[in-house]
Design goal:
By secondary structure, this protein is an all-alpha fold. α3 runs antiparallel to α5. It starts with a helix and ends with a helix.
């Protein structure tokens, strides 16, 4: 437990003092707030107040969480930090739990902020945050897989960014193209988008699809870990 806390503290400090990473977690809620206050609300209902919140929240969960997780692990591999951590007795699963803990807390905080900006309350607020967190967990697993198989941070970004853009922006395209919706409906970001845009939608069905994605991505992560491990 001590090792997990140490990794958690280390990674949190790295994020807080990284001028390139930290603003990424702030910019999406900020942009959602500006668009909601300056475009959605003055529109008089023509544009739903929560539209920009759900749009940017989905991009956050589908793209930013993925790229950030991949970047963290790839950076530690590139700097050989993992080699020294393992030599110091830190187990690989402790490292992953530490990284995952940081991303979970950050994702939860950002999800709550999105929910407050969107004006969600009660059961709708809980469903909104829960849907985003399910999506964030899936993105963490995919990001961790990319980080493990990548030789360095640049290589991780080259893979994670296009993956994140596809997963993050596809739900937006699906609003205008039924074919996109049908083809990409099996991906977790599409179901997150469904849940956050329509609270009357069947939560259980969408959650099961997201959990199925999580199971597949967890298996993919396990395969990558067995092949590459966390060698720095």
């Amino acid at each position: 437990m001590y090792s997990v806390n140490a990794i958690f503290s280390k990674q949190l400090r790295d994020i807080l003092k990284n001028r390139m990473v930290l603003p990424q977690f702030i910019i999406f809620p900020l942009v959602a707030f500006v668009f909601t206050e300056m475009v959605a609300k003055p529109s008089g209902g023509v544009i739903p107040n929560g539209m920009f919140v759900t749009m940017f929240a989905g991009i956050f969960a589908g793209m930013l969480v993925l790229t950030a997780t991949a970047g963290m692990i790839a950076e530690d591999r590139e700097r050989k930090s993992l080699r020294f951590l393992i030599m110091a007795g830190v187990k690989p699963y402790q490292y992953i739990l530490g990284i995952g803990g940081v991303m979970t807390i950050i994702s939860l905080a950002v999800s709550v902020v999105f929910g407050l900006i969107g004006g969600f309350a009660g059961a709708d607020f809980v469903k909104f945050v829960a849907a985003l967190m399910l999506g964030a967990v899936a993105s963490m697993l995919l990001g961790a897989t990319v980080g493990i198989v990548s030789k360095n941070q640049q290589a991780a970004t080259a893979v994670a960014l296009p993956l994140g853009m596809i997963l993050g922006f596809t739900p937006m395209l699906a609003l205008f193209n039924e074919s996109v919706k049908n083809v990409f409906g099996i991906f977790y970001t599409m179901q997150v988008n469904t849940l956050t845009n329509d609270f009357s939608a069947g939560f259980a069905r969408a959650a099961l699809i997201i959990l199925a994605n999580v199971a597949v991505l967890a298996a993919l992560f396990a395969l990558a870990y067995n092949k590459k491990g966390l060698r720095g």
